[in-house]
Design a protein that fits this description.
Elements lengths: L7 H14 L4 E3 L1 H10 L5 E5 L3 H4 L1 E5 L2 E2 L10 E2 L4 E5 L6 E2 L1 E3 L13 H9 L1
Antiparallel strand pairs: 1-5, 1-8, 2-3, 2-6, 3-4, 6-7
Helix pairs in contact: 2-4
Length: 122
Amino acid sequence: MQITNLDSDMIFKMATAKRNENSRTKVFDWHKAVRIIKKHNIKNASAGLAEDWDYTGDIILRNGSPIFDEDTYTYLSSVWATPVLLIEGTDEGIECWCWDDQCNWDAKTYWPKTALWLMENE
């Protein structure tokens, strides 16, 4: 999925249309992200919303270690935008999400314990 940036009017229109169409929310799938990171031996990656990357994307993995930054602006949940994992050196985001009612995460979830466990043990 191509990472893009839209103007605020377009974002508002898309969000309103999507909210009316579907009340479910996409949230970043931390377990899928870890599986991708481990499978491809990724050392540096970011996460965010593909359609609004400049305002939502930030680093989550540096030199193979999870980044814990209380000031991060990473935002990983939306009713209209697509949560993605972006591997350093590429400009294509990998769709990486689940429905909020099918996982235990929300927009505030950042490196949950289960994902950290997978990073160490899988």
